[in-house]
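=== Given protein ===
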Amino acid sequence: MCQVNLMKVLQIVYSCIPGNYRGGIAKVVYELSRAIVQVGHEVTIFTTNYNSGVLTDVPLERAVCSEGVTIQYFPVTNRRWMWSPQMRSAILNFAPQYDVIHGHNTFLALNKYVIDAKLNFRLPAFFHIHGALDPIVINKGIIRKIRKLLYIALVERRNYDAADALFAITETERRQISRFTTKPPIYIVPNGVNMPTKSPMNVSRNDFRIDLRLHDGQPVILFIGRIVPKKGVHLLIDAFARIRRKYADATLIIAGDREQHSHYVAHLDKLITQFNLANSVIWPGFVDDSRKIELFRTATVFSHVSESEGMAMSALEAMAAGLPVVVSKECYMADAARARAVIECEFNAEDLAVTLENLLFNTQFREEVGSNAQQYVREHHSWLTIAKNVVDIYQTALDKK
């Protein structure tokens, strides 16, 4: 391979508010971009003024800098498809200034803008799929299934076929992607995580537990993420009710925006009332990155049992914090499970309850899993290592020009 010189990279994503993420993809794009800058290249992110569906007050159509990454926000005219004529014009105007363009927007109009830039300027183009072609995602509801398959056939497959390469998070996702396109190479690039400078597990939890009125030693189960059905929060509440029958002082913290999917939250509230859990479930609301660290310091166990997941950022972050993490098999973390860096369970309340109990009330087992988790993410999910691999893939495409 040729010597890698300074590279100018343009990332395209529907949402990116550093430190205030309402979804894992936005954080992946920002952290990957930041790491690419750290290894010696320039990165600009074009994104919208929506934060995963929530209209956000950001400076429009002018560059802002965050930790060396340039970010430019554009308004959208249709939030369902994220149509943004202003972004499309900016991409076509400024694309010749960049060496590669990288999209992260399956089923959204922004991917078409990426391919337009490639075709107009022979700009190497890449797509991250981020779990969007998982059969569980595509087959969810007959109407949605038909719409997604039609969109793939009429629009997205052409985007993918025209790309220089695609990125899968796991080998399972690589196989899923290959069902729809076999033209570009598919590289496996996992999500990364930043290791805390000081492990939250080694920091006194008293301050945080006092704020939440929790006594030392009180078992705490933590969930952080979007409060939607696929995340299995209803199963977590059911499992927690089973645990409370034996351990009356256990507490469940559900962190996330209660307003964004209010119908589902109303269903969860009914479950909590039904199980008589109102005094043992804490809703801290949406948490930014700084508050997330505080919650990791407070928790005993982290639960992320999802119906479908590319590779959950919140689970990786909890692992980096030294927390034992429970995931469902649908989270595709089998390699970590084999290393006993996470504990897998079935996507049902009964198995989740048993798995959580084994961790909550077996200190040696819990500490072993937490230690394994930190070591595993340090070895396999370093953003700097991932960034270097991605840059090498970019360079491979540039060498072919």
Q: What stands out?
A: The domain at 8-192+382-399 is CATH 3.40.50.2000 (Rossmann fold). The radius of gyration is 21 Å. The chain has a mean pLDDT of 92. The CA atoms of residues 328 and 359 lie 15 Å apart.
